[in-house]
Specification:
The complex is a heterodimer of chains A (268) and B (366).
Chain A lengths: L1 H16 L11 H6 L4 H11 L2 H4 L4 H5 L25 H6 L3 H9 L1 H4 L8 H5 L14 H4 L6 H29 L5 H19 L3 H62 L1
Chain B lengths: L2 H13 L1 H10 L2 E2 L9 H20 L9 H10 L4 H28 L8 H23 L4 H12 L8 H9 L6 H33 L28 E2 H26 L29 H9 L3 H16 L1 H4 L11 H23 L1
Antiparallel strand pairs in B: 1-2
Classes of the chains: A mainly alpha (268), B mainly alpha (366).
């Protein structure tokens, strides 16, 4: 037995002493090459890794084109590489994916003033460290870099309620999804409404924002009703579950008490 | 005559059930000091029964096809009346079975109950434990979620470390070079027919070994004496012991009730405990989810493969450890069973458990 126990002990010590060998994560050739560079050519990689694009697997080639699998041809125009856009080209560059937002932006005050240095996408959202759009982006510090804050403040005020509603509905749907509820349809509607909402305020028109957020809120209200119905069902399940658990625990206690009485008989 | 009494008499004169009751239940005596750990066998029998019942119910609605599997599970959770309850009982039940199996094996190990010519009982129990793990692994793929797909890809990939035939073994397990519809088909067949049949046979054999050799006496107390071993087969009797029915049966029933309450508490108060986010995403072979991890009971094996410089060493250590555990009754031949008289064994036992927990936690956070 001593031999057996010693073997087990040695195995335990050996396992604790060994160093982990971790495999590196697979990256595109863009990240492999630029990730090893310093300054202007390397910084975008670190910035991108913190972005909402990285979170959603939108990588360098999705915006800049090129071939992410071929080191030699990665930046070849033949493989669709388009490089860095000029200042005025940025709305069209981002607008290839964010179609509705780009359209609303171009029709609004910012888009109309782009040739005169009007703000475009990266001025507010940054270029590589792109963060999820939030109301925090409309703030006095950033807006007053170009103009006064009054109008922006009014737009922000009109957006707060809808923005909070979107966040709450999103959180609720995520929770229900984690419990196995089929919420794809509701998530699809939310995605659509959030896009409409984002499109709305990119036009930077206070009255239009007020009118259109009303429609968005009505659609969100319908999702909220469905969520509330599911929550009621969950509450009922929990209630009945508690009753059943209580009864089972009670049965267990009764069995133990019966066992106790048998024990007394066995010892007497 | 009362209807029940009449029915008992009717069956008794034909099958002699009163004699069976007297001999196998009321007359089946257990050691006087039998403790609560001895109830785990009954708990496991109950849990396996629940798995079979809920499994059959799920089978009525599940579609074993890569195109339809995920949608069918989603329909079970959302559209089938009480489908969510069947599935939750099946999934949570599988995890509770692993907990109960570990507790059962560890208590047998601590009390050295595998000694006293109980090698077959231990061996059948050990194979049952591994079979239950196999059922968990094959069942894991069936919902065809991102978690299912990638956890199975990682798990089957580990077999590739076997020298010379590794790639062939991986291909055999998957039914092709990658996890796909063929893998789902063979895992489904194994999960619902192959493995349960072997499991039922092994449970029968395990119970036969337990019953035939007799229940071991708990090795505690000053009056504990190891029974003498005769040079021929002998059933270990416990004269003056406790009748199994109803005296000890009520204790079995109490612990079963507490396990059921524990399982239902998870289902109703922490339903997401065993479901990471990827469990509710349809399998996508082109998108590898970040930080994919196996179930908690496979984390030790997962991390062991990572901590050694090569997979083959990690796999070799796992095989060596499991073989050692399986053959423990043949290796450990001393007759002493009292833990108090075996300090080195107890030290290794505690260190072994701590190591298992530490490696599992490491695996979870690595």
């Amino acid at each position: 037995m001593i031999r057996t126990s010693t073997q087990l002990f040695l195995l335990a010590v050996l396992s604790l002493c060994l160093v982990p060998a971790l495999a590196p994560a697979a990256d595109t050739v863009c990240l492999q090459c630029h990730g090893g560079l310093d300054g202007r050519l390397g910084d975008p990689v670190d910035a991108w890794r913190t972005s909402v694009h990285a979170e959603n697997d939108i990588s360098c080639h999705d915006c800049h084109g090129g071939d992410p699998t071929d080191m030699a041809m990665a930046m070849s125009p033949e493989r669709g590489f388009i490089g860095v856009p000029e200042y005025t080209e940025v709305p069209d560059f981002c607008g290839r994916c964010h179609v509705g937002v780009a359209k609303a932006y171009k029709a609004g005050a910012h888009g109309q003033a782009i040739d005169r240095g009007g703000a475009q996408c990266v001025v507010c959202h940054s270029n590589h460290a792109i963060q999820p759009a939030s109301l925090d982006m409309i703030n006095e510090k950033d807006c007053t870099r170009c103009h006064s804050y009054e109008r922006a403040a009014l737009i922000r005020l009109a957006l707060v309620e809808t923005d909070t509603m979107i966040k709450n509905v999103e959180q609720d749907l995520d929770k229900l999804h984690r419990l196995g509820f089929a919420v794809d349809d509701m998530q699809g509607t939310l995605f659509n409404q959030r896009n409409i909402f984002h499109r709305t305020f990119h036009g930077v028109d206070v009255e239009r924002v007020r009118a259109e957020t009303g429609d968005v809120q009505a659609a969100l209200g319908k999702i909220k009703d469905k969520i509330d119905t599911i929550k009621t069902t969950l509450g009922q399940r929990k209630l009945w579950g508690s009753v059943v658990i209580g009864l089972i625990v009670l049965a267990g206690i009764v069995f133990l008490l019966i066992r106790k009485s048998y024990e007394e008989d066995e010892h007497s | 005559m009362q209807p029940v009494k009449w029915l008992v008499e009717f069956v008794d004169v034909r099958l002699g059930i009163k004699e069976i009751y007297q001999k196998e239940l009321k007359g089946y005596l257990l050691p006087r000091k039998v403790n609560v750990w001895y109830t785990l066998g009954a708990v496991l029998l109950t849990l396996f029964t629940i798995q079979i019942i809920t499994g059959i119910l799920l089978l009525m609605f599940y579609v074993p096809d890569a195109e339809k599997a995920y949608a069918s599970v989603e329909a079970i959770m959302n559209d089938v009346p009480f489908g969510w309850l069947f599935r939750m009982l099946h999934v949570v039940g599988a995890n509770v079975i692993v907990i109960a199996l570990l507790m059962h094996m560890l208590s047998v190990l601590f009390m050295n109950s595998y000694k006293g010519r109980r090698e077959f009982t231990w061996l059948t129990g050990f194979i049952l434990f591994n079979l239950a793990m196999g059922l968990c692994l094959t069942g894991y793929l069936l919902p065809w979620s991102q978690l299912s797909f990638w956890a199975t890809t990682v798990a089957t990939d580990a077999a590739g470390a076997i020298p010379l035939v590794g790639d062939q073994v991986v291909e055999f397990l998957r039914g092709g070079p990658t996890v796909d519809n063929q893998t789902l088909g063979r895992f489904f067949a194994l999960h619902v027919v192959g493995m349960p049949l072997v499991l039922l046979g092994l449970i029968g054999l395990h119970l036969f070994c337990v019953k035939r050799r007799g229940i071991s006496t708990p090795p505690f107390g000053e009056d504990y004496r190891e029974p003498q071993e005769m040079p021929f087969f002998e059933h270990e009797k416990h004269p003056g012991g406790i009748p199994f029915f109803p005296n000890y049966f009520v204790k079995d029933a109490a612990v079963i009730a507490f396990f059921m309450a524990f399982m239902l508490a998870i289902i109703f108060y922490a339903p997401g405990l065993f479901f990471p986010e990827t469990a509710f995403q349809r399998a996508d072979p082109f998108v590898t989810p970040p930080h994919i991890k196996p179930e908690w009971y496979f984390l030790w094996a997962y991390q062991t493969l990572k901590i050694f410089p090569s997979k083959i060493i990690g796999l070799g250590v796992q095989v060596a450890f499991m073989t050692f555990l399986a053959l423990l009754p043949f290796i450990d031949r001393s007759r002493e069973r009292r833990p108090a008289k075996r300090p080195l064994f107890v030290t290794c036992y505690v260190l072994g458990i701590l190591l298992f927990v530490a490696i599992s936690i490491w695996g979870h956070y690595s």
